[in-house]
Amino acid sequence: MFLLRLIIPDRPGSLGTVATALGEVNADIHAIEIVEHRRENGTAVDDIVVDLPQGVLPDRLVSACNSVPDVEVIWFSRYGAGGGLHMDLEAVEQMTSVPAEAVDILVEQAPAVLHADWAALLDGTGSEIKVALETSATPEFGQLVDQWLPLEKATTLVAPDHKGLAESVLVAAPLESNRRVLVIGRRGGPEFLGSEVARLSYLASLAVTIRATA
């Protein structure tokens, strides 16, 4: 499974042309997600999750996209988070089904929702700051666990020069208080866009609201 992040012309037919090009190299499209509309220059940023049959080189995905006029590949990597289209809605559905665990569910689902590699809930509401919950592949924070607290609103973070974190791009949002923070990381990129920060902010607020109904 691979993730392609593309800049494409924001006009009818562009995405279909890309899908046709990927089909010509036998790529099986699992999900397409419009990440951001850039109306100032008439383009859009799209994530496409695809699978390749055995024996087909991954580089052919990039070549296929680059063969389409005015399409630019800005990120390409293996994609192991699962997920796909409508992950936001699926996460909300899970949260509403078990309101008391809404925050925990958001932490667990965040990597799939945002096409990331890991997520961790940092809790500084007690006498010491700790990692209250984390997904698999979350790096060790060590003494850096407190550097992002308090956090007032969802935002991207500057990755520290620390083993396991230096190669990640980071985004975070407060949950319930500015000392309870969800941190999400992608190894190597791509950078989190403003629209993704807004989505995380919305989901974090929704998780807190749903939990309050329990």
Fold and architecture overview:
By secondary structure, this protein is α+β, with helices and mostly antiparallel strands. Helix content is 28%, strand content 32%. The protein contains five helices and nine strands, in the order βαββαβααβββββα. The strands form two sheets. Strands 6-5-9-8-7 form a five-stranded antiparallel sheet, covered by helices on one side. A four-stranded antiparallel sheet has the order 2-3-1-4, with helices on both faces. Helix 3 (87-97) packs antiparallel against helix 4 and helix 3 (87-97) runs parallel beside helix 5 (194-212). It starts with a strand and ends with a helix. This is ACT domain-containing protein. Pfam families: ACT. InterPro entries: ACT-like_dom_sf, ACT_dom.
How are the SSEs placed, and which strands pair?
Layout: E1 2-9, H1 14-23, E2 28-38, E3 43-51, H2 59-66, E4 72-78, H3 87-97, H4 102-113, E5 118-123, E6 130-134, E7 155-157, E8 168-175, E9 177-187, H5 194-212
Antiparallel strand pairs: 1-3, 1-4, 2-3, 5-6, 5-9, 7-8, 8-9
Task: Please describe the structure with a list of short key phrases separated by commas or semicolons.
four-stranded antiparallel sheet; 5 helices; 9 strands
